[in-house]
Design a protein that fits this description.
single chain; about 290 residues; alpha+beta; D-amino Acid Aminotransferase, Chain A, domain 1; OB fold (Dihydrolipoamide Acetyltransferase, E2P); 2 domains; globular
Length: about 290
């Protein structure tokens, strides 16, 4: 079951509760009657060998079941999830003792699909949550944790924004689990940040557009902030393209390996406002989206 994209206007929807939005990797955990445990992501890529600490703890929970949740790495110094270490663990096909020790993962479980041979997808959200809490309470609860819900949605949102958290997932209290569906019963509300950036170049487009993405820099110190390739309408694309074409080409301030693709550097005074999730450990904006020309 997948989320639709919501907005702050959805925070006061009747009969909706909320859960934290985690910055990790979606994982389904399956424990069969014989005790065999399998993990896979939402694209059915097998993660069983990659996440042995999660397998061990899922195996310790009595019974057979199918869990749905998010695997995250929580920085012990900040108490926050960080995506890059989680991505490193999940993309490493064979166990790496160093990575496992350096970045132990936690499985934040938010739903229960099947238990003791019975599919429970038609039971309401609140009932599945009750069954899930009771099931996980029988395990160690060290690396596999129950995700609670909150009814005070607007207060939870204010706290998420004040603490620079990812956002919230809103869920219909009486909804069923819709297998393979992007449902309006689950809404993701993202806590977007915004930043003013200087355009210092562009990446050519392979889709027939004037440009593929804009290369962004911090206006104060010139550090590379990433590339933005979405959010433009036709008028904005044309206007920006006109500025880029009339701007002199300059030596590339950043290696193409850092930018991630070939690009053309230009000298402009063009500044744009972008929204983004967070910054990576290299200081790049994650999932930037163009908002407007400044």
């Amino acid at each position: 079951m997948l989320c639709q994209t919501g907005s702050e206007a959805d925070l006061n929807r009747p009969n909706f509760v909320c859960e934290p939005k985690y910055d990790g990797t979606r994982v389904i955990a399956i424990k069969e009657k014989g005790g065999v445990v399998r993990l896979h992501n939402r694209h059915l890529i097998d993660y069983t060998v990659r996440l042995p600490e999660i397998v061990e703890e899922v195996k310790a929970i009595p019974g057979s079941f199918v869990l749905d949740g998010e695997v995250v790495w929580i920085n012990p110094e900040t108490g926050r999830e960080e995506f890059t270490p989680c991505q490193r663990r999940c993309s490493t096909e064979f166990p790496d003792p160093y990575l496992r020790m350096r970045y132990p993962l936690t499985y934040m479980v938010f739903d229960l699909i099947k238990v003791n041979g019975n599919m429970i997808v038609d039971k309401p959200y609140w009932k599945r949550k009750t069954l899930l809490r009771a099931l996980l309470a029988k395990g160690r609860e060290e690396r596999v944790k129950f995700v609670p819900y909150r009814r005070d949605v607007e207060k939870a949102w204010q706290e998420a924004v004040a603490d620079n958290r990812e956002g919230l997932i809103l869920k219909d209290f009486n909804s069923r689990y819709e297998l393979g569906v992007r449902s309006w019963s689950w809404l993701k509300i993202k806590n977007w940040r915004t930043e003013e950036c200087l355009v210092v170049g562009y990446c050519p487009s392979s889709k027939g557009r004037q440009f593929g993405s804009l290369v962004l820099a911090n206006p104060k110190d010139g550090t590379f902030r990433g590339c933005v390739g979405s959010g433009f309408n036709d008028y904005e694309m044309a206007r920006i393209w006109q500025i880029l074409q009339s701007s002199p080409e300059i030596p590339k301030p950043y290696p193409e390996a850092e930018v991630g693709e070939p690009y053309i550097a230009v000298k402009t005074d063009l500044k744009v406002l972008v929204k983004y999730y967070e910054t990576t450990d290299k200081g790049h904006l994650r999932h930037p989206v163009f908002v407007k020309i400044l």
